[in-house]
């Protein structure tokens, strides 16, 4: 299992996004480290955080008229649906399956997403303000 911790080199230059990314990674790591008994509740916290985190980015995209809003929102929707599928695996007792998802797939996804869509959204927003 890989773990990824937020460090300043992951900053996208927008404070609320950096805060969300730090919290996101802390919750991912808490899921990875959780006992089987604690994983369902922590997975729910990760999901609830992610819904709010994505909504805040989408509000920024709306405010700034970000050109790739549909692409970025579509990816958020895909990830939330994927999380709901893995949450259903937890309910069926496939704890190891869900743990592998949050420990491997989610961190890899986060880095790619941060480097592409989130960075582009933040850079575009900064240009609107300047
Ligand atoms: Fe994000
Ligand atoms: Fe995003």
Which key terms come to mind for this protein?
Four Helix Bundle (Hemerythrin (Met), subunit A), binds fe (ii) ion, mainly alpha, about 130 residues
Can you characterise this structure?
- With 130 residues, the chain is mainly alpha-helical.
- The chain has a single domain (13-129), classed as Hemerythrin-like (Four Helix Bundle (Hemerythrin (Met), subunit A), Up-down Bundle).
- It contains four helices and no strands.
- Helix 1 (15-33) packs antiparallel against helix 4 (95-129) and helix 2 runs parallel beside helix 4 (95-129).
- The protein starts with 14 loop residues before the first helix and ends with a helix.
- Residues 57, 72, 76, 113, 117-118 line the site of one fe (ii) ion.
- Residues 13-94 form the Hemerythrin-like domain.
- Belongs to the hemerythrin family.
- Keywords: Iron, Metal-binding, Oxygen transport, Transport.
Describe, in short, the structure shown.
The protein is an all-alpha fold and 130 residues long. The chain is built from four helices and no strands.
Secondary structure topology:
Elements: H1 15-33, H2 39-64, H3 69-91, H4 95-129
Helix pairs in contact: 1-2, 1-4, 2-3, 2-4, 3-4
The chain binds fe (ii) ion (2 copies).
Poorly predicted runs are none
The main β sheet shows up as:
none
Order of helices and strands: HHHH
CATH architectural group: Up-down Bundle
**Alpha-beta content class:** mainly alpha
Note the total helix count. 4
Distance from N terminus to C terminus (CA atoms, Å) equals 41 Å
Radius of gyration: 15 Å
Helix content bin? over 70%
Our estimate of the beta-strand percent is under 5%
The total beta strand count reads 0
């Amino acid at each position: 299992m890989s773990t990824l911790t937020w460090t300043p080199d992951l900053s996208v230059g927008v404070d609320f996004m950096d805060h969300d990314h730090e919290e996101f990674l802390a919750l991912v790591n808490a899921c990875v480290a959780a006992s089987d008994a604690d994983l369902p509740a922590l997975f729910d916290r990760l999901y609830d955080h992610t819904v709010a985190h994505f909504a805040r980015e989408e509000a920024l995209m709306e405010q700034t008229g970000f050109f790739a809003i549909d692409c970025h929102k579509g990816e958020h929707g895909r990830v939330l649906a994927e999380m709901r599928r893995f949450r259903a695996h937890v309910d069926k007792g496939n704890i190891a399956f869900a743990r592998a998802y949050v420990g491997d797939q989610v961190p890899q996804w986060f880095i790619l997403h941060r480097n592409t869509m989130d960075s582009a959204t933040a850079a575009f927003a900064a240009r609107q303000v300047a």
